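Listing S7. Sequence submitted for prediction.
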Amino acid sequence: PTEPGAVAELLAKHRARFGDGFHERAQEAVRCLERDVFLACCAMSGAAAESILLAAAGEKIGQQTAAGLYREVLGRSKLERRVLNGLPEGLRKRISDKLDLLKYWRDDASHGAVSDLGEPEARMAVEQLCRLAELADDNWGVLTAKDAGSETV
């Protein structure tokens, strides 16, 4: 979908699975894009992607463990490794590629240095968020399956 309302609806259907944090950030990303607030759009798209990661980790290793890990130094990276550990290579790569791009733009947009992120990056960020949400939702069982390595970081 290219219309903001349709994109917002597409993302809203994932609220039950990924939680209110995801929903809030995803909807903010769409509203920012509609209003040409491109840095904020990239930041919110990346934050919504982190909410997907946090929801998957919570399902896989428990909500409290995931929340504690997320708050640690390099917590996002630790969560990502826990969630992606043991996935089939093709799925792991597809998810990782989408997360990498969104993390890059989120970090670039939300830090204090001047950024050259604009409309193309903001549109791509929302598109990648939609694709990540669909991919994670479609593969939720595999993504959140508990594995032998789930007790170690």
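Caption to Listing S7: primary sequence and predicted structure tokens for the chain studied. Residues 148-153 have pLDDT under 50 and may be disordered. The chain has nine helices and no strands.
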